[in-house]
Amino acid sequence: MTGTSATERFARRATLARSVRLLAQFRFEQSDPDRFYGALAADTVDLVADLWDGVTGSPPAGRTVLDVGGGPGYFAAAFTEAGLHYIGVEPDPREMHAAAPRTHRPAGTFVRASGMALPFADDSVDICLSSNVAEHVAQPWRMGEEMLRVTRPGGLVVLSYTVWLGPFGGHEMGLTHYLGGYRAAERYARKHGHRAKNDYGSSLFAVSAADGLTWAERTGALVAAFPRYHPRWAWGLARVPGVREFLVSNLVLVLRPS
User: pTM of the entire structure?
Assistant: First the structure.
């Protein structure tokens, strides 16, 4: 399941030191988003570049990457600096402009659209990426099918998402999501006086590792699946039913359309 040839290069980067460094950044997601998302964007570029090299044997510079749920531009800057042509898709204009007053990121092209119906032709991009978006849409695998549709044969689809039963599945609700999604959402609203940004049932959904793997295997395009933030020696957790729902935290599905 780990797709040795596709993941060999990234596996060398997936060390315990990297895991600890990324985990330390998570606490800044709300208080210092530039710091958090900047670090995440740099790591995501490394992930995509290594996977592209693994499946094609060449660097990704000059290729077009379509980022579904690209947000305010942190990924745009990082991918553009790495030499890729970046297109970001974001349905929420508030998210699209969230970083603009503090950071000027003219890099890339942005399109306001839904991942459920991407406004791009079949086989039109080299790489299609979705980072931590699938858990925020009611039909994540419909989005996955759209990502496959717009990616050319021999290209790369990287769909990474937060597993609901993992420790970060509740997002800002913390570990209260183990009480149940709706119950945790109501508890958050009572405590803070407003609904969570990632509100269960509307902008946050329970997406399992098993569901993602079942969908990806059914497409016939799956080449690798592994925990995004774990060191290489822990990747085997993705192969263990039940255990993976609690310990994988974030699952990466790597697909290559043919």
Answer: 0.92
